[in-house]
Amino acid sequence: MTERPSSAARSGQWVSLFSGGKDSSWALYRALEAGLDVSRLVTVHPEGDSYMYHVPATRLASLAAESLGIPLVEVEPEDFEAEIAEESGAQGDAELRPLEAALRELDAELPDGIAGVTAGAVESEYQTSRIEAMADRLDADLFAPLWQQDPRELADAMLDAGFEITIIRVAAYGLDESWLGRTLDSEAIAELEVLNESHGVHILGEGGEFETLVTDGPHMERPIELAYETEWDGTRGTLRITDAWLAE
Known about the structure:
Layout: E1 13-17, H1 22-33, E2 38-44, H2 61-68, E3 72-75, H3 77-86, H4 91-109, E4 114-118, H5 125-137, E5 141-143, H6 151-161, E6 164-170, H7 186-199, E7 210-216, E8 224-232, E9 237-246
Parallel strand pairs: 1-2, 1-4, 2-3, 4-5
Antiparallel strand pairs: 6-7, 6-9, 8-9
Helix pairs in contact: 3-4, 4-5
């Protein structure tokens, strides 16, 4: 994984692996900041739990894409059903196949093909090794500005840049229902540092402790507004988004 594209990167345009969450949004933001020509976002919509992908509220990626002004390509659940049925013993590899197929189609469609992809990986070797291998098969560069960076420094950088981040799912001891719908601000980050010491909660939720949605940032034309209800089972919970729109 690399924070910067290599000097030998092939010509073409960049594709951002994008869920709408903070990590993929930060990778996209940093790519744009670095002057990379990101011409497509690709969002995967897995059904149920996933080893490879951010799951909740991925349908809101279309609103984020509209605000960003970058066309969105969506990989749908039916693409997974066929692939995973063929390789039930290797879910991570099977889950990657529909994404790779979509990227190959884009590589053929874009005038000069795909030069590289952005990824919001932080620490997961399981995910990143597969994404890196996929990029190699596509002969594409990989831009992963979060990889193995200090979690607190990353969180501070996101907030300093003006990201507005909403917590949309929690699944860890120490995170109760009050965290659902909460803004991930400096106060929340400080509390997460305490929970990291007491319960092992990752400050960025890298272990699936929580999931997020970026509702505004300096790279977005208009913020995303949400209406929602909370669903809580006593140990974990999620926001059920009842409406979402771009603010005027």
